[in-house]
């Protein structure tokens, strides 16, 4: 699991896997998780693919997702949902901040809006939206 950008120790990785195993008492479920990790380690799976699979696998286990993020390269972390429901006003305010920030680079704002539109049309995961947005922001 150490292909990530963070310097996690083997002991921390073992402790994390123990926690996952305890949470998913079903041996088959745990083996499925190990298979995902192994496929990633031997480079049969991209970072984006492992993020998608782990995000689905650990759905609802925010502490395990947070722990898994420690093994991922910077920029690929799985976003955790906000503590409470996002209010429409907050979403509008965020989009306005992005628009204001990139007012001199209209293409960047348009790319951001396209990502949000694609999320609604194509059902992109939150992780995919985050990754796409981070790519847009990096090239500004």
From TrEMBL:
Gene3D superfamilies to which the protein is assigned, alphabetical: Paired amphipathic helix
Keyword Nucleus appears in the UniProt entry: yes
Alphabetized GO MF terms: transcription corepressor activity
Keyword Nucleus annotated: yes
Entry's Gene Ontology cellular component terms: nucleus
InterPro entries from the UniProt entry: PAH, PAH_sf, Sin3-like
Key words of the record: Nucleus
Cross-referenced Pfam families: PAH
Main location: nucleus
Compartmental location: Nucleus
Name recorded for this polypeptide: Histone deacetylase interacting domain-containing protein
Native species: Phaseolus vulgaris
